[in-house]
Fold this sequence. Notes:
Elements: E1 7-10, E2 13-14, E3 19-24, E4 33-38, E5 43-48, E6 55-59, E7 66-72, E8 75-81
Parallel strand pairs: 2-8
Antiparallel strand pairs: 1-3, 3-6, 4-5, 4-7, 7-8
Amino acid sequence: MPKHQNLILNPTMVHQDSLLTIQNTEGSFQNNNYIIKNENGSVIRKGNISNSFFGFQLRVVGFKTGFYQFIMGDQQENFQVV
Length: 82
């Protein structure tokens, strides 16, 4: 049975040098490490957050226009930089 997806990215279409908000629908994040990959599968950014957060924001700086994948633990969501 697939695990329930509880990551929400907003907006899913973000402008360069804007903020991407990541939220968890079930409270604090189970995993505090994240990875962002581009459409070729290359890791663009890695980081971690405090376990106490229910959401956080990332500034999309230095990202080329295209599609990206935000991965945290076994959960992933896609977003687009325009």
